[in-house]
């Protein structure tokens, strides 16, 4: 058991997510204020967890500029990626690196950046934006963490990842940080819609992780009892990877062949396409070694136009535009039974029809792993589906119909509810930050 003790200046709730992040503060009247982030001419209550680094290649000192969130996207989209005088690097899904002991960082423009350095930049910008919006210097936070980090194979890996995340918060200027499991924070957000004594299953579906917690809800002034929690390092990014694998990569040469002396072999190593599938490894393709590999392979390939298209994606830093095209397909298939994948840039054009049925076939392995973890959390709590009073789903991936179907088929449509997909966790973290003491088994 551990305690979170809060005193002095208010603590904010921070949900640093794989894809999106949000910040919230519980006010004295019991309401919660979510920090607004610019989104063109409007605002959003979440910010993309993304970095963009840029330098002028022919400048004498070549200083590096770094932006996060909306500013990163703005500068990335405003950059002419065909201009040899400008060099940029877009980095997404940094949270997915935290449990990777063998990955300490990456070299960008000749400088080594630790994972903690890159995450800290995002967190520092979140802290500064929150400070400006709230009118006081934010130094204290209750922060969410997944039950199981991406890539964690043991509890020791989870501890390692949390320590890395804590170091990033401290580097970002936070002096008092406490972590809470994200699905438990989501349950706190949902608590007002549940009755004392209810058994509530919370499913938190993010970009990198899927987490489940079973709780018995307490009454007014009482604590909720955590009955069991579990998680798995798959979620929205894994679904995106399937779209890239089956829809994008074949048009970029994943099944192509190339001449090698007197033989015909696969044009490129499978690792190139694995990096293309994962948003946090896509930037690994922007190296001189890969660029040269793509150039020489194009000359030997039986389908050189496909390798040329892949080379254009890499050399012109089109990863974010690819990501947006994949996200659009996933979102549209949540509302319709078929749509069209569209990626049209000056150097790359791809249009392909896709149905919800095909998409659900592609993500079937991930759905099975989610169902296994759902079985595990019920078994750990020694509960049958009929003993669960309510199910609360949150996170962007919870909007995928096949994911929701996993729960409605087992618990019934009337017991399955959804919250704000991208802010429920931050909302709950803020409520917990407002309490003097939160105890959790």
Question: What does this entry look like structurally?
Answer:
The protein has 441 residues and is α+β, with helices and mostly antiparallel strands. It has a domain of 213 residues: Nucleotidyltransferase, domain 5. The chain contains 13 helices and 24 strands. The strands form eight sheets. Strands 2, 3, 4, 7, 13 and 14 form a six-stranded mixed β-sheet that branches. Strand 5 and strand 6 form a beta hairpin. Helix 4 packs across helix 13. The N and C termini lie close together (5 Å). The N terminus and C terminus are likely disordered.
Task: Give a short synopsis of this structure.
The chain is an alpha+beta fold. It contains 13 helices and 24 strands.
Key terms for this structure?
441 residues; alpha+beta; Nucleotidyltransferase, domain 5; six-stranded mixed sheet; five-stranded mixed sheet; 13 helices; 24 strands; 37% helix; disordered N terminus; disordered C terminus
Describe how the helices and strands are arranged.
Blueprint: E1 2-5, E2 12-16, E3 20-26, E4 32-34, E5 37-39, E6 42-44, E7 47-48, E8 50-56, E9 64-68, H1 69-78, E10 86-92, E11 105-108, E12 111-114, H2 115-134, E13 140-145, H3 155-171, E14 176-181, H4 182-190, E15 199-205, E16 210-216, E17 225-232, H5 236-248, E18 257-260, E19 263-266, H6 270-277, H7 288-300, H8 304-315, H9 319-335, E20 338-344, E21 349-355, H10 356-362, H11 364-381, E22 390-394, H12 401-411, E23 416-418, H13 424-433, E24 437-440
Parallel strand pairs: 2-13, 13-14, 15-22, 22-23
Antiparallel strand pairs: 1-24, 2-3, 3-4, 3-7, 5-6, 8-9, 8-10, 11-12, 15-16, 16-17, 18-19, 20-21
